[in-house]
Specification:
By secondary structure, the protein is α/β, with parallel strands linked by helices. The protein is built from 15 helices and 14 strands.
Length: 403
Amino acid sequence: MQGDRQVFTGLSAATMAGGAAAYGLIGEAAIAVSDGQIAWVGPEAELPLDYADLLRTDLGGRLVTPGLIDCHTHVVHGGHRAVEFEMRLNGASYEEVARAGGGIISTVKATRAASVEALIAEALPRVDAMLAEGVTVIEVKSGYGLDRETELNMLRAARALARHRPVQVVTSFLGAHAVPAEYKGRADAYIAEVCLPALKDAHAEGLVDAVDAFCEGIAFLPEQLVPLFEAARGLGLPVKLHAEQLSNLGGAKLAAGYGALSADHIEYLDEDGVKAMAGAGTTAVILPGAYYTLRETQMPPIELLRQNNVPMALATDCNPGSAPMTSLLLAMNMGCTLFRMTPEEALKGVTVTAARALGLKDCGMIAPGMRADLAVWNVSHPAELAYRIGFNPLHARIFGGKN
């Protein structure tokens, strides 16, 4: 499937572009690609004459969706936390592990010790697993450095992933992920002395697409994050927030007040927070992998989000502690099985709504003008992508019109 101008035929297209049909589905469809973008999509019988002479590739009746988008990952980091996984199974809670110096802080030690090259090398196998399931865009956060140089190194490694693999990488500065040991009890000083200078340096180096933070009792309170979000606003950067994962501190409402792209996790989100997100156009990012790993019982308010028309994205949350998973297909199944999302909501959540959660306007749908990022599947119905467990039906992954 090489070439800058070609037509894919013999397919069903789940365009995710809206319309009356579920999934935006077009049967017996064709997709014309030109210069890395989608030029036309519709019933094959209506293919315009302008594309009649282009190279044709028959996909044998397969389903084509937009390339998948993993809109919340921590894929760049040092080391692993398998031992802490064992601790939790022996009864320790996520908060107890963190307060004992484990959790995020244990990964900080391994990440600080790693070079940029080592961080890239460790991340690439995880990225490869994602690409093998049709992922074409990955969001990557910093947050395991908690000092200026390591935060910058994580973002440098994240940017480099797109030079090593055919994938778009979107970066988030997550310096406010935890309070490092050397600033214990001095969260405000950490924000002022480390986070803000590191953010400015990262922005100056062109390493940051958005600013994120962890709003929780074991991390940062809403009022402590105001200087960070004000700095982001001053730099013209959008914000995101890990909010209401373990308790309801009003983080989502704070994020919505800054017009946040997304509030993520949100298991403890209340109606006030939902309404604030709806008013701000903030996307909810649902992360069932962490819910599963931590054996949580508080589910995100899916029905309340639906009632208030808050878009729902899904992501792996790939990280070494609470979600050591790289499968976006599994996240789709978990979203449906654990939270009763519909298969259509799940597919939207890893395509068009995931693009919205990242502020991207050129991907996530099969429509003219969109980048030709496509996933070709050995399935007959889109619901199969969320239905199967531990099965990868990807036939081909097309990035910018090229396989």
